Amino acid sequence: MAKVADNQENLKKCICGGCPTYGQCMKDKMEGLFCAKGKSSCELEKNGCLCGACPVASENKLDRMYYCESGAAE
Ligand code: SF4
Ligand code: SF4
User: Fold this and answer.
1) 3-49 pLDDT tens trace
2) Which residues form the domain of 19?
3) pTM for this predicted structure
4) Which of 8, 39, 41, 45 lies deepest, with the highest CB count within 10 Å?
């Protein structure tokens, strides 16, 4: 599986900002696009994941969730 490109275009498509798991800490640090950039530096409580509905996921054939917890796609 190809690595997800860490670029502005993908960052704009990332829907993490609307996710119930996306917390204030992530917001403050302007984190996102975890599938490319790697996991969050914030403590997180899993409340659901929107990655399955994200265009970056479908375009890159991602099949995992919670990239904010587990880090970048291989
Ligand atoms: S797959 Fe998840 S982490 Fe990756 S861009 Fe989409 S919403 Fe963000
Ligand atoms: S990786 Fe998934 S769980 Fe984490 S903030 Fe993005 S959509 Fe939510």
Assistant:
1) 899 999 999 999 999 999 999 999 999 999 999 999 999 999 999 99
2) 8-70
3) 0.95
4) 39
